[in-house]
Amino acid sequence: MVKKISHKELLIHIIVWLCISLFPLLTAYIDLGKIPSNLYFRQAIRPILFYVNYSFLVPHFLLKRRLIVYVILSIGFLILYNYLSEEFITTTFANEFVNRPKPPIMPKGPFGLKHAIPVVFSFTIFLLGGIFSLVVDFYKRDRETKAIENEQKEIKLQFLRNQLNPHFLFNSLNSIYSLVQSKSDDAPEAVITLSELMRYMLYEAGDEQVPLEKEINYIQNYIALQRLRLKNTEAVKLNIKGETRHLKIYPLLLISFIENAFKYGTDYKGNTQIDIKIVVENDKLIFNVENIVGIYKRDDKNSGVGLANIKNQLNHLYNNNHELTIEDDKTLYKVYLTINLKK
Predict the structure, then answer these.
(1) CB atoms within 10 A of CB 291
(2) Contacts of 48 (CB under 8 A, 6+ apart)
(3) Are the beta carbons of 277 and 239 closer than 8 angstroms?
(4) Count of CB atoms within 10 A of residue 20's CB?
(5) In what helix (H) or strand (E) does residue 216 lie, and over which residues does it extend?
(6) Where would I find the Signal transduction histidine kinase internal region domain in this sequence (predicted)?
(7) Which residues touch 252 (CB under 8 Å, ≥6 apart)?
(8) H or E segment at 287?
(9) Under CATH, to which class is 184-340 assigned?
(10) pTM for this one?
(11) What is the DSSP string of 81-145?
(12) Between the ranges 102-106, 142-146, 227-231, 262-266, where is the mean pLDDT highest?
């Protein structure tokens, strides 16, 4: 199959060939002011050298690691090309147009310089075709590799998010169940808040990035839902500081830390102590969560699912642009996260 050439490549080919073609025509016989017709023909057929190597030999043999076959075909093609160009074009076809004084005959010299120069020039054109083909193939493979990596990255992130969503829904339904069981008047409000949370997750969190302001609003709704089932809501503190409107963040990165704070920082008698701080300064998000360790011990196997997923997402999305520190002294659990949102 012949190699396809894009519009950008076509433009590069045209510019390169203008330079290659015009240089010999403008310099070889500039003193005489006349250009022999055989030189026109040489220049007219030299693209054959380039494109046979560029479009056929390199893609079908060299890139497929058939090196010996490539070398044999290349040598054979160069010999055939130079034989035909010298014997047929310069002696037969070009003679029809030779009705003008010829340029001075170049001395042959010990190595036949007269014939050596066209051969060397032909080999150079042929070599350029091969180099150009290898460069184009390299960039094509590089683009394909990056596209595959991005696709795999997106698939993995979607998988991680799909794992987080049921986990979140399970926790939220547990909260509403507690309200319904206690016949709380706050149960209808909890359902409305949950619907807002689900709407965000279904219709907005699927975007690559979301406004930081919306992500924080999502966190506020989640905390409001959790407060409905707690006795001591004053022990749940949320402090937000800084300008958030002009920044964006990958969605659902912070909620797992908050979920774990409510799950393990509450004894389900309503006693809890959770302190959440969100600070934005110099395009950096500083996110801190502190909670007491409740009577329900942290189950590393279960709690690790959400945290492991969020760590993987942070590594994929903010690689060298985030710092995460987690401290656990058995009585107080602390999360310190800094993200450079202008990565």
Answers:
(1) 25
(2) 81
(3) yes
(4) 17
(5) helix 212-227
(6) 156-232
(7) 161, 164, 201, 205, 215
(8) strand 284-292
(9) alpha beta
(10) 0.55
(11) HHHHIIIIIIIIIGGGG--SPPPPPPP-TTTTHHHHHHHHHHHHHHHHHHHHHHHHHHHHHHHHH
(12) 142-146
Q: How confident is the model at residue 37 (pLDDT cuts 50, 70, 90)?
A: low
Of 293, 294, 198, nearest in space to 255 by CA:
198
Phi-psi region of 283 (alpha: psi -120 to 50; beta: other; left: phi over 0): left
Q: What is the mean pLDDT of residues 316-340?
A: 91
Distance CA 292, CA 155 (A): 36
Max CA separation in the chain (angstroms): 111
| Cα angle 131, 136, 139; round to 5 | 125
CA separation, residue 269 to residues 63, 120, 164, 209, 266 (Å): 69, 90, 26, 38, 8
Cα 162-245-192 angle, rounded to 5 deg: 50
Alpha-carbon gap, residue 307 to 294, rounded angstroms: 18
Q: Are 341 and 286 in contact (CB under 8 A)?
A: no
Q: Which residues, including other chains, have CB under 8 Å from residue 250's CB and lie 6 or more apart?
A: 208, 209, 210, 313, 317, 318
Give the residue from 225, 235, 343, 220 showing the smallest Cα distance to 292.
Answer: 235
Give the residue from 285, 261, 253, 249 showing the smallest Cα distance to 160: 253
For residue 245, give every residue at least 6 positions away whose Cβ sits within 8 Å of its Cβ, in sequence order, or none.
Answer: 211, 212, 213
How many CA atoms are closer than 13 Å to the CA of 120, on its beta-carbon side?
Answer: 7
Q: What does the domain layout of the chain look like in residue ranges?
A: 7-145, 184-340
Question: Residue 242 in 3-state DSSP?
Answer: coil
- Residue carrying structure tokens 């986990």: 167
